[in-house]
């Protein structure tokens, strides 16, 4: 080792571990030996998680019990950690002395501590907004942090976190409702088992499990040490923050040979230029991108980025899947379902914890009314139980058995108020529902037409928008088969404009039923479509208007032949033989004509 050392010169490079100077040609060989020796001396052999040294030092600064090798009372260890920080600084020409490094390290630890969140047990966990790994990251000594489910049910129900976040699944076995995507013998399941995860776009309605699936993928990768997980939200992340994460991913891949999984929630919030930032790095494999969106990726995600990712469509959760999710929730919370042969988990040493019961009918109501949104279902369950816990009075006897609380169906309905209808006036569901309404009326199915009308109006759609579509339908699909259809639709539009919702809903329903029952004819629609096709497909200049059809308000125009030879139809008792089309279009019938006839 002594042979590698050289006298300090301007070109000398300092080892970040032992703080000795080496020439640029020998520093890499020395680092391999020095790092291996340092790890063998300071780290236990049973450590399972291969985390970078930098992450362990930063986490230990916030822990209550720090490893002996990184405590504040060990100046040499702190100096070693500071030198590791200096290795990644852009200005490598000025290296701090060991005493200066200690001051720099202590000054940098305070903002890190401020950014660390704590769970219900008071243990440190990194916040997602900082782009760090999620709450399921390994703990201080390589062991997993305790989950919040180790706390009493009352603490869980009265915590500030939503129940959907607290009970987020960690494994695919706890992930319900998406068997077509992650079930046995599926492509994604096999890729997860082999840790060969491609870049993904998760598309589905709110509460179907997009974010949860991304965290399960990240948890599976981190347990095997094959990747690190970074979570960002497109609603609050700038392009500079994304570039910084990409730089970290490049360093992670080059120095630690570990991939980075970048999860972008609401990726459709990024504009096209922001999405282009990912293109070269996803292409070369620097990071694995997992984007979650509730909007159609075909319209909201850049086509170039879409071609580099696999789109997974997550369906709205079924009632059966919601039932499984709610059963897992009540079992975790220690709530006993009336009518089932279940045992409540063993009591805590304190016997004053109330016993919570819930009716099976109440759980079924949640499963039906949440409209396939697991987040809405779990949070409404939490709200109903919290309300009963808050209204419960202490045991008047002051001693003896614990209090019993029953959650009924009425409590659930009071929390939900009404059905959680999935409808986005500016999104894809807006166009899906209006298309279903139009096609139902075209097919003369008045029941289906009324249903889709209700879906739109109850979901908050503007009634005037629907009324305008009905006016269009009256001419496009009914047309001349019932000449009263158009006045009926126009009257409905005017009535909606006069009185508004909710009084105009019955007027809309009347118009929809009338149009669904009316005879249908698309002759007008097809004829005008043929006229447009004729104009677009015409080769050369458009034919001029025949002279006898032109108006002649001036003497000059009359001298030029305008209106000459025109036959005024009311002056004749019978049909008039007269040409009304240009010579090039004589004999054409737009009701039967097709573009190929031109």
UniProtKB/TrEMBL annotation:
Residues 12-39 form the UBZ4-type domain. GO terms for molecular function: ATP binding; ATP hydrolysis activity; DNA binding; enzyme activator activity; single-stranded DNA helicase activity; zinc ion binding. InterPro entries: AAA+_ATPase, AAA_assoc_2, AAA_ATPase_RarA/MGS1/WRNIP1, ATPase_AAA_core, DNA_pol3_clamp-load_cplx_C, MgsA_C, P-loop_NTPase, Rad18_UBZ4. Residues 119-147 are annotated as: Disordered. One of its GO terms (cellular component) is nucleus. SUPFAM superfamilies: P-loop containing nucleoside triphosphate hydrolases (SSF52540), post-AAA+ oligomerization domain-like (SSF48019). Pfam families: AAA (PF00004), AAA_assoc_2 (PF16193), MgsA_C (PF12002). The keyword ATP-binding applies. Belongs to the AAA ATPase family. RarA/MGS1/WRNIP1 subfamily. One of its GO terms (biological process) is DNA synthesis involved in DNA repair. This is UBZ4-type domain-containing protein. Keywords: ATP-binding, DNA damage, DNA repair, DNA replication, Metal-binding, Nucleotide-binding, Zinc, Zinc-finger.
